[in-house]
Design a protein that fits this description.
7-stranded mixed beta sheet; 0% helix; 118 residues; globular; 4-stranded antiparallel beta sheet; mainly beta
């Protein structure tokens, strides 16, 4: 299974970005998907997740109400719409996949950089 994340970039505070992650080499609809991020000097943290069906969503408190995770099973793609970006949202964002039957994420993308200027 391979994950390819894209969509990062430089944006001003208050702006928006949409990240995409295309999954190949596996049955996409069989995976729960998540987004994580890691800022310099900090540990990687959970951002958002979506179940295989798209019916169950979860968000970190720090992004609730500003970020939206979604998936398109026909396109093998998961998205992260990020609005009202803050400087503290700046990080490398990673998409990850885990099988429905598993609790840990076993497959990770390469990361995409998000920079937010104040």
């Amino acid at each position: 299974v391979q994950l390819q994340a894209s969509g990062g970039g430089l944006v001003q505070a208050g702006g928006s970005l949409r990240l995409s992650c295309v999954v190949s080499g596996g049955a996409f609809s069989g995976y729960n998907m998540g987004w994580f991020r890691q800022a310099p000097g900090k540990e990687r943290e959970f951002v958002a997740s979506v179940s295989w069906s798209g019916g169950n969503l979860a968000y970190a408190n720090s992004v609730e109400g500003r970020f939206t995770i979604s998936r398109d099973n026909a396109k093998n793609t998961v998205y992260l719409q990020m609005n009202s970006l803050k400087p503290e949202d700046a990080a490398v964002y990673y998409c990850a996949a885990r099988l429905k039957s598993q609790s840990d994420y076993h497959y990770w993308g390469q990361g995409t950089q998000v920079t937010v200027s104040s």
